[in-house]
Amino acid sequence: MRTILRLENPIRDYAWGSRTAIAGMLGEPAPAAGPQAELWMGAHPAAPSQVWLAGQRLSLAELVAREPEAILGRSVAARFGARLPFLVKLLAAAEPLSIQAHPDAEQARAGFARENALAIPIDSERRSYRDASHKPELFCALEPFEALRGFRAPDEIRALAERLGVRGVSQLVGAALEGPAPLAALTGALLRLDPEHCAALVAEAAGAAAAASDPGLAWIPRLAARHPRDAGSLAPLFLRYLCLAPGEAIFLAPGELHGYLGGFGIEVMASSDNVVRGGLTAKHVDLDELLRVVRFEPASAEVLRPESRPDGTACFRTPAEEFELSVLRVGPGRSFASQAERGVELLLCTRGGVRVAAREHAEDLAPGRSCLAPAAAGAYSVTGEGELYRVRVAAMRERASGAA
Asked: Would you please indicate which residues are annotated as catalytic (active-site) residues?
């Protein structure tokens, strides 16, 4: 397996997807015929990338299972087994996604086993757990990106509710925040509202927030227009609002309640498709499970920016073992060379045009195109003029200062 593998990547057509962002990056006609929500790069069984090898088109999942050490590297295969530990996506949201959280490793194993025991088909809409893996996640904006992420502090929530000036909201918030577990009580009280009471409260809050100067509260009427009977429309009241500039990122640990509002970027995660939803969606919602999975503690407003490294890359540091995202730029007089001893790496071009070469084989990448550099391919070089995002296994980063 001494060759660079060009990836053919599937596009998921979820209803909230953009018709222009992914098509535009790929240089294809835009708007596309339908929504293009996520372009998946990886080996998750739900939608694996395809590769050509010796004239044969193969699933990347099948190839990794067949030759784990050659693709992943001995250390990665020993640590994670015969599976690619990370999944990479281009995510393009024209409309808000659901309010959701991802499980930790123990919750994922238990939830997957429970739904299997209930004989729920893997591809059923009634599933929250499609595999037994946890799902730490990093999102890096390629264009301005808005999101709700993590809880505001109780005092901040109380003050925002008072500023909104809706008596029913203020009373509900005030009562919920008086108890010993205020954030859990508030989330449960809101998401379990009687539908008629919820619709009236959402409508009143949307009217009051229409002229709000707070950018988070200003989302309430926009969410209410799409989901008028869903208490998730009030999420900007208790979740932190942020707007990422291109090149900025956030890390979402398991159990962190969040919702993406709109924009375009790169999402990197442990290879999992587990999502526990609480609202703002027509998909399966499991409030009991969400309330078990979520960590009810105030979140920081931390935004990640890449740290420069001696090898010419800039790296986003996270606690995740399964992945590490870095960005590298090449141009006249500026190329990149990896180390020979390294684990598997995935390279995605986002701007310009680059050539990735190893031994006697090279792949030319335009924006939106990606390739896999198997461990057995050894050292590779990147030349041309453009920007690449590189994903590798973070557990390997201490082995060498370059691309190991």
From this structure: 277
| 100 contact partners, CB below 8 Å, separation of at least 6 | 257, 258, 259, 275, 276, 277, 278, 290
Rg, the chain, Cα only:
22
Please state whether 133 falls in left (phi above 0), alpha (psi between -120 and 50) or beta: beta
Encoded tokens for 24: 């535009």
Q: What is the mean pLDDT of the chain?
A: 94
Average pLDDT of span 151-159:
96
d(CA 73, CA 58): 19
Rounded to 5 degrees, φ, ψ at 367 are: -55, 135
**Count of C-beta atoms within a 10 Å radius of residue 385:** 13
pLDDT for the residue numbered 311: 85
What does 162-204 look like in DSSP terms, one character per residue? Answer: HHHT-HHHHHHHHHHTTSSSHHHHHHHHHHT--HHHHHHHHHH
Q: Would you say residue 400 has pLDDT above 70?
A: no
> Are 269 and 137 contacting, i.e. CB atoms less than 8 angstroms apart?
yes
